[in-house]
Amino acid sequence: MVRKTTIHAQQQTLPGSEALMSPRAEFIRDSYRGSGKLDGKVALITGGDSGIGRSTAIHFAREGASVAITHLAEEQEDALEAKRLVEAEGARCLLIEADLRQRDVCDDVIRQVIDTFGALNTLVNNAGTQQVSKDMTELSDEQWKNTFATNIDSLFYLTRAALPHLGEDDTIINNASINAYIGPEFLIDYSATKGAIISFTRSLSNQVVGRGIRVNAVAPGPVWTPLQPATLGAHDPDMLEDFGSGTPMGRAGQPSELGPCFVFLASLDSSFISGQTLHPNGGTVVNG
């Protein structure tokens, strides 16, 4: 059982840091037992240095996968800690510093993964950003373009570069958001990108499922990651007071509760599932 952790007002600056969060996040439960679901597999996880990405990397490692993680230059400290945690599971870990908004950078990331591990079996498009804007007329062109470049362009570039290396029983998992379904008024650009990710997931699944490649998404509800104090908290620290308390479960999720969702979609446990979205969101019914 995950106990409710009370979150109080706080703030950071983007891209955020795990070390500065209070309380600290949980990435994997002591009770989680790996069973070789991903033995011999190679996974690339964007934004794997912290939050949901870090949890996914640790869970994949415990299930036997080798892991490549992309991160920004500002996230080097978090990335090194993620690498330490992955390697503590007995897995290989490759860190790649990369600004994924650029096509050539994404192409190079895939090349590095193939050159290092000789294969790629799972692509987790997890990296993303958000900014609060409560007035559409004040949402700048720069913010709009950056949100789409970070959340959508990178996903497209990486997926296109990865597809030639994927085959039967390989997987693509896209991190969407509950906000694609509920549309919070202060995250218009972010919510629009997450809605696009859902549609991208469905269409790409229809295109490649005949090749045995499964494409699915995860749409988390409020989860305690550095993105929250670095965006919501940066706008107004009080936005994080009792963060997640509005869910039916009355609390925010921990990254440790998201990692197993990605394991399920990456493994043969989900062999008859493609084009779908999982909703780990604390009990909110979104009918999507």
TrEMBL record:
<dbReference type="InterPro" id="IPR020904">
    <property type="entry name" value="Sc_DH/Rdtase_CS"/>
</dbReference>
<feature type="domain" description="Ketoreductase">
    <location>
        <begin position="41"/>
        <end position="227"/>
    </location>
</feature>
<protein>
    <submittedName>
        <fullName>SDR family oxidoreductase</fullName>
    </submittedName>
</protein>
<dbReference type="InterPro" id="IPR002347">
    <property type="entry name" value="SDR_fam"/>
</dbReference>
<comment type="similarity">
    <text>Belongs to the short-chain dehydrogenases/reductases (SDR) family.</text>
</comment>
<dbReference type="InterPro" id="IPR057326">
    <property type="entry name" value="KR_dom"/>
</dbReference>
<dbReference type="GO" id="GO:0016614">
    <property type="term" value="F:oxidoreductase activity, acting on CH-OH group of donors"/>
</dbReference>
<keyword id="KW-0560">Oxidoreductase</keyword>
<dbReference type="Pfam" id="PF13561">
    <property type="entry name" value="adh_short_C2"/>
</dbReference>
<dbReference type="InterPro" id="IPR036291">
    <property type="entry name" value="NAD(P)-bd_dom_sf"/>
</dbReference>
